[in-house]
Design brief:
By secondary structure, the protein is of the alpha+beta class. The protein folds into two domains: 276 residues, CorA soluble domain-like (Beta Polymerase, domain 2, 2-Layer Sandwich); 58 residues, Magnesium transport protein CorA, transmembrane region (Methane Monooxygenase Hydroxylase, Chain G, domain 1), CATH 1.20.58. It contains eight helices and seven strands. Strands 2-1-3-7-6-5-4 form a seven-stranded mixed sheet. A hairpin with a 3-residue loop joins strand 6 and strand 7. It is rod-shaped, with a radius of gyration of 35 Å.
């Protein structure tokens, strides 16, 4: 349930723009990585203090500053002051419970996304908030922890492969978003494999553990929908080119991200429908198993009804019963009748296809 409830109680009563970190502290020490490049040169380093990145702000090259860890309030204040970020933007960056969104401040764009990955140990989807600031010559990205899916992008920048070194900061922001959206497909593949295994289990041997797994998967779909659905509007606004920071040459690539986002949303909706149908299958399977058990018990009880009647008659303490004087009445006559009645009823039930 904590993934669906926002932990905002710490901000109640505070003035707008007050910087308070909301969320789990996922790293002990903030990590600052800087990459400054153009088509001809590249400079990359890990900064010990944020002041090392400040001289790159006004250079004509493209500067990418990535911050891993959001709990250092003083660091965020320095970044906001030097790069001219609005206090409400810094507040939203520190609040890791934000939904995906985009805000245009003329001089820069503020984008919030959710990076998803599948935890193999816990068998559930984990989310990390990514905040991106796109300006005319730099990109700031803020993450909750070290280690992400941007390493292939860094390798492309280092090796000057592709278009990234030839394009501007808007293309870099697109590349970051594209890496996040493409990773959604990996998460969906993992969940798709679990759903396929569930279908087979539901048909063959549904158990209470199966029902629990089914409910967990439905919760994962709710979590995914909450994390991905607003992203469609974010990418759509970028793709329409309403901001002067997005060049026409980058718009076609953003359209591709939009298509991928729609595909992800369609897959999530398909999985939700499948899980709803699987719940009906589970209830039907359990009901059918119960009906089979009740049918067997009913047939057994039905067979014993006439046998109980016969035994009840000869269980009466009457003195004058002619059969009591017959020598072979118990070993032959009685058991022949009892067994004959049982066999006849079983044969009749089978003929009626009740067995």
């Amino acid at each position: 349930m904590p993934r669906f409830i926002k932990r905002v109680s710490r901000k109640i009563g505070l003035s707008p723009g007050t910087l308070v970190h909301i969320g789990k502290k996922k790293v002990e020490k903030v990590r600052i990585r800087l990459i400054d490049y153009d088509e001809a040169q590249l400079q990359e380093k890990e900064a010990k203090i944020i002041e090392e990145c400040f001289p790159f702000k006004d250079l004509p090259t493209v500067t990418w500053v990535n911050i891993d860890g959001l709990h250092d309030i003083k660091l965020m204040e320095k970044i906001g002051k030097h790069f001219g970020l609005h206090p409400l933007v810094l507040e939203d960056i520190l609040n890791t419970e934000q939904r995906p969104k985009i805000e245009d401040f003329d001089d820069y764009l503020f984008v919030v996304l959710k990076m998803l990955h599948f935890d193999e140990n816990e068998q559930e989807v984990r989310a990390e908030q990514i905040s991106i600031i796109l300006a005319s010559n730099f990109v700031l990205s803020f993450q909750e922890r070290v280690g992400d899916i941007f390493n292939p992008l860094r390798e492309r920048i280092r090796s000057a492969k592709g278009r990234v070194r030839k394009m501007g900061p808007d293309y870099l922001a697109y590349a970051l978003m594209d890496a996040i959206v493409d990773n959604y497909f990996i998460v969906l593949e993992k969940l798709g494999e679990k759903i396929e295994g569930m279908e087979q289990e539901l048909v063959t041997n549904p158990t209470p553990e199966t029902l629990q797994t089914l409910h967990n998967l439905k919760r994962e779909m709710i979590f995914l929908r909450k994390s991905v659905w607003p992203l469609r509007e974010v990418v759509s606004r970028l793709e329409r080119g309403e901001s002067k920071l997005i060049k026409d040459s980058t718009g076609i690539y953003l359209r591709d991200v939009y298509d991928h986002t729609i595909q992800v949303i369609d897959t999530i909706e398909t999985f939700r429908d499948m899980l709803s149908g699987m719940l009906d299958i589970y209830l039907s399977s359990v009901s059918n198993r119960m009906n089979e058990v009740m049918k067997v018990l009913t047939i057994i009880a039905t067979i014993f009804i006439p046998l109980t009647f016969i035994v009840g008659i000869y269980g009466m303490n009457f003195e004058y019963m002619p059969e009591l004087k017959w020598h072979w009445v118990y070993p032959k006559a009685f058991w022949v009748v009892i067994i004959g009645v049982a066999v006849f009823m079983a044969f009749y039930f089978r003929k009626k296809k009740w067995l």
